[in-house]
Structure of Cloroperoxidase:
Amino acid sequence: DANHVYLKPAPDAVRGMCPTLNTMANHGFISRDGITTFAEAANACQITLGFGYDTCVFLSALGLLSGGDLPSGKYSIGGADSRVPNTLGQSLGISRHGFFEVDNSISRIDYALGNQANFNLPRFQRVQKIAKKYNGLF
């Protein structure tokens, strides 16, 4: 829709390992800078994914608890960022290996092999090739 067009992330924008959150930011469903809030992320989850309120609140709370600032409700969809307060301790963002992020992605490489935050086109193209071979069925 016209209110949620794709915009390339600005140089100071944060992106992380979750393609869904990155897409939400790129289309303006959450803050385009990649710094979101509990309420904003829960609302975006409902709008974009059609999940129930309870599921979206749970997922957003998980993001906030895993690396955000509880009093302000802010968290980074990437790593630690100075735009997220450190009221109760360091706010590390949600892109921390083994905590919120896991090593299973069709578009990112494994943490042990390098930068798991960046999109890996060859990996994604392999999945597309497999999907095409089986007419989109897995």
